[in-house]
Design brief:
The chain is mainly α. The protein has helices at about 5-10, 15-25, 30-45, 50-55, 60-75, 80-85, 90-105, 110-115, 125-135, 135-145, 155-165, 170-180, 185-195, 205-210, 215-230, 235-240, 245-260, 265-270, 275-290, 295-300, 310-320, 325-335, 340-350, 360-365, 370-380, 385-395, 400-410, 415-420, 430-440, 450-460, 465-480.
Length: about 475
Amino acid sequence: MGISNTFRSSTKNEKDVKRLLKALQKERNPEVRQKIAEALGNLRDRRAVELLIAALKDDNRHVRVVSIIALGNIQDRKAVNPLIEALKDEYAYCREGAVISLGKIKDEKAVEPLIQLLKDRDSYVREKAVWALKETATSAVYPLIDALKNEDKRIRAGVARVLGIIRDERAVTPLIEALKDDHEDVREAAAQALGNMRSEKAVEPLIWALEDETSYVRKMAVVSLGEIKNTRVLEPLVLALKDDSEEVREAAARAVGETRDVRALDPLVLAFKDENSTVRKMAARALGNIEDKRVVELLIQALKDKDSSIREGSAQALGNIKDERVVEPLIQALKDETSNVRKMAAISLGKIKDTRGMEPLIHALENEWIQQDAAIIIQEGEYDKLMEPLIHALENEWIQQDMARALAQIKDEYETELLVQTLRDRERNIQKIAAQALRNLRKFDTMGYPRTLFLGQIQDVEYENRKVRRIADETLAKMRVTSP
């Protein structure tokens, strides 16, 4: 076997390893050295570690990157110190690769150097440093807590973020202290971390953070209080609905709605009149989460708001409340000039499952912007009187995929034939959907349907479309017949 064939080998062979080790020492072509290093990393043979460590000083940066990655694949602790040194490489890809490899090896010696990488000038290196520190969480918690007092604000903020991902209870008190940091980025990261940890100890400190001078710190405190979901958070979140910052008010409306507490009804009705449309939209959704029928008329009126985002939020909210009064207004909303409003109206009608909404949804299938939602909704409705329009809709080339999915759920003898016919469609994706739909049917052995029809039609599916053929074969297997 030549050296080029050895590159492609992923199984360890004694001769291959020796050939590659020898070649890495003598080869002058950097492209070949790069391939050799990659092959050695794939083979994961520890005899390659020393040579790969030496390759970290190669003049060619691509050779260095591949050697770094190879050492990460082998995961020998002898490579830890050289990889830590590689964190100083001037080439960002080398630093990023070294971070990844150290994250795989998980040696505690790498924790402090990785913490320093949280201030790297390259954002990808910083992101990978966060990941690597998470991977070494067992030995990283205390060094990370100590680093919350680092003189560099970037490190303090990055450390807070990592601690929020690790979610170790020992970090709660230090993160609460970080809410008082001199820099707003650190305070924001600390607030986010405490929300991720969902610690009851953090509730009061986060309530204090609602008074922070920086709006995005206040917003993160709102978001985190919403994550913790303690009974004490409702009142401060309601007060945040009156914050000077529209972003804080928006986050507060979302968080208040997620409490589903009926006491928030009146404050949300007031927020529904906010000067900012995004806040009003979020307030509408929040009202829907509370599911109180006292706001139905208000939300129905909002379906005529000049702002499409308000109409969309109101349509969504009405679907959650599920009052019979909302059906006709939502049917009218299927004709809205904005696609997102039409889509949300279709989804809400599907949630309500009122038979008055079924025929309008069938007609909505002609609108390519909401066809998928309408088709999925129809799957869960009453079908007996609607088979004819459903079948007609299948002839529309824009919606064949969605109708195939819908018909697969109806499980009627007549529509099964339609799905088989659809296998003949020239479009590969439609063939696949139809075959998948047939595979989902569960009545082959009991409905007495003529199996020869399936055999005849599946023969017409083009052989080069292997995925469709495979699905069709699985379908036939369920029917206890053999594919032609």
